[in-house]
Amino acid sequence: MKVKIISNIFSLVLVAALLLPLVGAFADNDTNGTTATGNDNEPDKDEEQVDITNFARGIELYCIDTETTLYSKGKDIVCAPSSSAKLMSALVAHEKIADLSEEIHITKEMTSGTAGLIYGFSSGMTTTYNDLITAMLVRNANDAALIISRNVAENTESFVELMNAKAAALGMYDTKYANPTGQGSAGTTTVADMMTLLSAFSEDEYLLSISGLSSTKLASTKVTIHSRNFFLSRYYNGGPSYLNSSIIGGIADEKGETLLSVAILGGYTYLAVVMGGTEDEEGIFSYRITSKLLQWGHDNFDYITLIDKGKVICSLPVSMGYGADEVAVFPARTVTRYLARDTDLDSAVSFTYTIDKKSLTAPVSFGEKVGCLTLFLDGEQIEVIDLVVASDIPSSSSDYMRSEFVKFIKSSFFRGLVITVISVCIVYILVMAIVKGQRKKRLQILASEKEGER
C-alpha cells in the first residue's frame, strides 16, 4: 500500500515537473506579446493625448525655403521681448560696427546697471566687439549687451532708438524695445514680430554661427563660455531630452520660457518661436514643443504637385494635318507647392483656362502656345501658365494643294483675272462681230457693183 501511495506521489511530481516549463513558456509568450505591442522609445499613450502646445502662450513654425507658415498660435499676443531683444541688439551692432576686432577698454560706466545673467566684464578689462557679441549671444550676458550699446551709440537710450528704428524697418510694428538686454518686463512685442526678427537674424551668417555655438573661448579673456540654450549645451543642466542636433542657432531666456530657434531638418531651414513656455518635472515645455514641432513639420509637409505639365487640358482640331486631325493641349510647366502631405488636392486645387483659337492649321509645332491656364489653391489665384500643344503635326501635301487652290480661286487676283478674261472675250466677240459685219457689207457692195456693170 505504501509503495502504491509513493508511486502515485512520484507520478504527480513527475507530471508537475513536465508541465511547469510549458506553463512558464506560455507566460513568457504572453509577456513578450505585450512587450511587442509597445515601444520603450514611444511616449505613453496618455501623454500622446496631451497637446503640449497648450503649455505655451504663443508658438509659430516657419519654413524659410518655402516661405510657408506651418503652425501658428497666439502670434498677436502682446508680450515682453525677453532675450529675443539681444538678437535685435546683435543685428544693430553688426550693422554699425566697422571692425569687430576693435578693442574696447571697459570703464565702470559701461557696466553700470547690469543685473541678471552676466559674463563678468569689469572696469579695467580690455575686450573686442566680437567677444562682446559672442558673450551676449552664447552666454546671454546682459553686461555684454549694455557695453555694446554704450559704445556703438552715444548711450543706451540712443542705442535703443536704433533698435526701434530697425524694428520698424523690418515691419515689426507691434514691437517697442526699452533696453538692449530684454531683461524684465519692459518693452513689448509679439510672436509674429519675434518671427520677423528671427528671420532677419538667420540671414546674418556671422551672428547665426555665433548663436549656434555650444561653447567657445573668448580671445580677449581666454575664458570658455557655455551656451544657455539647452538645445546646444548640457552645461547648464540641459538634459538629454533637450538635445536636438538640427538646431543651428537661436537664443533662449534664462528660464527657457521664451525660445527662438533656427534649425535645418531634411534639407529645409525652419524657424521656431515659442513664447511663455511652462515647465514640469520632465523639463521645460518650450524645448519639448520646439522639438515636436520641427519633427512634425518634417514628417507632414513636402512639395506637392498641383498640376503636372503632362496633364491634358483639352484638344484642338487641326486642319490639313498629316496623320492627325487634332492635337492635345497641356500646361507648359509643372507647378508645385509646399503643403501638408494629406492635402485633399481634389478640393483644394482648381483651374480655369482660355484658348486663343478654336482650331489650328498644320503645320503645328510642339510647344506652340495656344492659350493660358489660371491655377487656384483654396480659391486663391497662385499661377498663370501657358498652354501649349503636345506634338508636331506636319501638313498633308494633298490637303495643302487643295487648300492652296481654294485660296487661289477665292483670292481677289483670281477674281480680277477671271473678270479680265471675260472682258477680253466679250471685247473680242464684239470686235469680231463688227469686223464680220463690215466684211459682209463690203461683199454686198461689191456684188451690187458687179451687177451694175452687167
Give a description of the structure.
The protein is an alpha+beta fold. It folds into 2 domains: 59-301, 3-Layer(aba) Sandwich (Beta-lactamase), CATH 3.40.710.10; 308-397, D-Ala-D-Ala carboxypeptidase, C-terminal domain (Peptidoglycan synthesis regulatory factor (PBP3), Domain 2). It is 41% helix and 22% strand. The strands form 6 sheets. A 6-stranded mixed beta sheet has the order 16-18-19-14-13-17. A 5-stranded antiparallel beta sheet has the order 2-1-9-8-7, sandwiched between helices. Helix 3 (84-96) packs parallel to helix 6 (142-152) and helix 6 (142-152) packs across helix 7. The longest helix has 42 residues, at 412-453. Mean pLDDT is 85; it is low at 1-48.
Quick take:
This protein is of the alpha+beta class. The protein folds into two domains: 59-301, DD-peptidase/beta-lactamase superfamily (Beta-lactamase, 3-Layer(aba) Sandwich); 308-397, D-Ala-D-Ala carboxypeptidase, C-terminal domain (Peptidoglycan synthesis regulatory factor (PBP3), Domain 2), CATH 2.60.410. The protein has 13 helices and 19 strands.
Characteristics:
disordered N terminus, 13 helices, 19 strands, 2 domains, Beta-lactamase, 41% helix, 454 residues, Peptidoglycan synthesis regulatory factor (PBP3), Domain 2, single chain, elongated, alpha+beta
The low-confidence parts are 1-48
| Percentage of residues in helical conformation | 40-55%
Number of domains: 2
Q: How many beta-strand elements?
A: 19
CATH topology of the largest domain: Beta-lactamase
- How can the largest sheet be summarized? 6 strands, mixed
User: Count of helices?
Assistant: 13
Radius of gyration: 44 Å
Q: Please tell me the CATH architecture of the largest domain by its name.
A: 3-Layer(aba) Sandwich
Strand order of the largest sheet: 16-18-19-14-13-17
Strand content: 15-25%
Choose one word for the global shape.
elongated
The CATH H-level superfamily of the largest domain is DD-peptidase/beta-lactamase superfamily
From the N-terminal CA to the C-terminal CA, the straight-line distance is: 193 Å
CATH class of the largest domain: Alpha Beta
Mean pLDDT: 85
Q: Based on helices, strands and strand pairing, what is the structural class?
A: alpha+beta
